[in-house]
């Protein structure tokens, strides 16, 4: 197993390029099930989750070939309707194949994903929505079995804003008979990217990016070429890397407007952010101000940036209150941050962080994807050496992060444990 060794204290400088978005790529890959033929997806990040998605698609009968960051997915012969526990347990997004398989083959058998390190993460709203579209759904032996001759449009009102649920039903409804309206839909940019793909395949989807999405079902979809949007969470992580080290960096291939909530908060902290000619310059402050954040569905502050922001607040002048409102167990990084000497108390879904002058490098263990990024950020700012182990979580979602950070002047190395 690999671990990262970081010698902290270097101010980052120079330029870094953001990769394609993991959270957009996964549903886009899955959507190709609906479009028989050869689809070509570009700006795909090299990640473990992408490999898992490819494995899932190959199991279903797709032929996938990769050439750098361009992946060809030929779904002409998708004929297997089953995604096993082995595949779904390694990556929750695999469950999204359920709706597209049902739409394409009339039946699907997909393992329930179960919870993960950050919370229970149920899919009841996905299943309720598919049932509203006319699917006959049974849960047996840890699997969802679904059948439908042809899905039919329906009006669906989500109790909770769900990104995965919105994406899943948008895909399932694209070839349903009649009109589907998704109310209280999630508005994340990754949903808009998926809608662009589906519309280019021939779907009729309006309103993606708002809370009401209208889908007029069509009989069939055809293959597409698509360039995946930049990863806003990777971009946000680099912004905090500049902030926490008092650095001055330029970030290429990011869409700043996708990160408004983070940008406003970073400006409150004292970070300077300048967007010129599609390059975003981020200058860390001399003194980090402590401020409060609450995670919310988009366009609110993203839960996927909460852990990284907490690392920054550990070094703030003053206290900060961080509320996590999306996932019930997304504070696993707190006890690891405390190994750096951070002063944090947690009560329910709220963490109070009292800023300290200096973090002190330590051996720590990553517990989930964004927690891994949080520990790297703390290590970049800490004195002495930090060792981050269990970084397989990191490899699920950040492409070559240690190489990109080293390119910005960080002293960071990957070694075998
Ligand atoms: C709103 C939000 O910030 N969503 C994040 C979530 O998406 P992801 O799609 O994984 O999660 P959801 O948006 O579906 O979950 C939002 C909330 O709804 C609940 N829920 C969801 C589905 C369901 O059927 N029943 C149910 O109760 C979840 O437990 C959670 O509390 O994680 C992704 C990966 O970290 C992020 O990119 C998304 O931005
Ligand atoms: C938790 C994340 O991903 P997933 O939904 O794939 O677990 C994430 O991207 O931060």
UniProtKB/TrEMBL annotation:
The active site is at 116 (proton donor). The modification 2-(S-cysteinyl)pyruvic acid O-phosphothioketal is found at residue 116. Its EC number is 2.5.1.7. Residues 7-405 form the Enolpyruvate transferase domain. It comes from the Bacteria. It is found in: Cytoplasm. Pathway: Cell wall biogenesis; peptidoglycan biosynthesis. InterPro entries: Enolpyruvate_Tfrase_dom, Enolpyruvate_Tfrase_sf, MurA_subfamily, RNA3'P_cycl/enolpyr_Trfase_a/b, UDP_GlcNAc_COvinyl_MurA. Transmembrane segments: none annotated. Phosphoenolpyruvate binds at residues 22-23. GO terms for molecular function: UDP-N-acetylglucosamine 1-carboxyvinyltransferase activity. UDP-N-acetyl-alpha-D-glucosamine binds at residues 92, 304, 326. It catalyses: phosphoenolpyruvate + UDP-N-acetyl-alpha-D-glucosamine = UDP-N-acetyl-3-O-(1-carboxyvinyl)-alpha-D-glucosamine + phosphate. Keywords: Cell cycle, Cell division, Cell shape, Cell wall biogenesis/degradation, Cytoplasm, Peptidoglycan synthesis, Pyruvate, Transferase. Cell wall formation. Adds enolpyruvyl to UDP-N-acetylglucosamine. Belongs to the EPSP synthase family. MurA subfamily. NCBIfam families: murA, PRK09369.1. This is UDP-N-acetylglucosamine 1-carboxyvinyltransferase. The lineage of its organism: Bacteria, Pseudomonadati, Thermodesulfobacteriota, Desulfuromonadia, Geobacterales. The gene is murA.
């Amino acid at each position: 197993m690999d671990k990262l060794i970081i010698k902290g204290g270097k101010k980052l400088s120079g330029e870094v390029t953001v990769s394609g978005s993991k959270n957009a790529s996964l549903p886009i890959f899955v959507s190709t099930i609906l479009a028989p033929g050869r689809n070509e997806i570009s700006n795909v990040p090299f990640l473990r989750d992408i490999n898992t998605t490819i494995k899932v698609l190959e199991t279903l009968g797709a032929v996938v070939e990769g050439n750098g960051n361009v992946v060809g997915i030929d779904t002409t012969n998708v004929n297997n309707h089953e995604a096993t526990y082995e595949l779904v347990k390694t990556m929750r997004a695999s469950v999204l194949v359920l709706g597209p398989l049902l739409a394409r083959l009339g039946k699907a058998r997909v393992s329930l994903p179960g919870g993960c390190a950050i919370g229970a993460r149920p899919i009841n709203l996905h299943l309720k929505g598919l049932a509203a579209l006319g699917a006959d759904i049974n849960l047996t032996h840890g699997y969802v079995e679904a059948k439908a001759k042809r899905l039919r449009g329906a009006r669906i009102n989500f109790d909770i804003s769900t990104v995965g649920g919105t994406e899943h039903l948008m895909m399932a409804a694209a070839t349903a008979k009649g009109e589907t309206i998704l109310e209280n839909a999630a508005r994340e940019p990754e949903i808009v990217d998926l809608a662009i793909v589906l519309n280019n395949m021939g779907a009729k989807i309006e309103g993606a990016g708002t809370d009401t999405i209208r889908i007029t079902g069509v009989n069939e979809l055809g293959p597409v070429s698509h360039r995946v949007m930049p990863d806003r969470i990777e971009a946000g992580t680099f912004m905090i890397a500049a902030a926490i080290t008092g650095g001055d960096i330029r970030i290429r291939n990011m869409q700043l407007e996708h990160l408004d909530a983070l940008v406003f908060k970073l400006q409150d902290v004292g970070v300077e952010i300048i967007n010129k000619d599609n390059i975003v310059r981020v200058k860390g402050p001399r003194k980090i101000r402590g401020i409060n954040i609450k995670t919310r569905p988009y366009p609110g502050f993203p839960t996927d940036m909460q852990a990284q922001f907490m690392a920054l607040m550990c070094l703030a002048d003053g206290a900060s209150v961080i509320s996590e409102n999306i996932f019930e167990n997304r504070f696993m990084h707190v006890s690891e941050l405390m190994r750096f000497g951070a002063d944090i108390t947690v009560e329910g879904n709220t963490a109070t962080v009292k800023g300290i002058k200096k973090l002190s490098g330590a051996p720590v263990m990553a517990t989930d994807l964004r927690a891994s990024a949080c520990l790297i950020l703390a290590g970049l700012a800490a004195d002495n050496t930090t060792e981050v182990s269990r970084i397989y979580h990191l490899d699920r979602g950040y492409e070559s992060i240690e190489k990109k950070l080293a390119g910005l002047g960080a002293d960071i190395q990957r070694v075998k444990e």
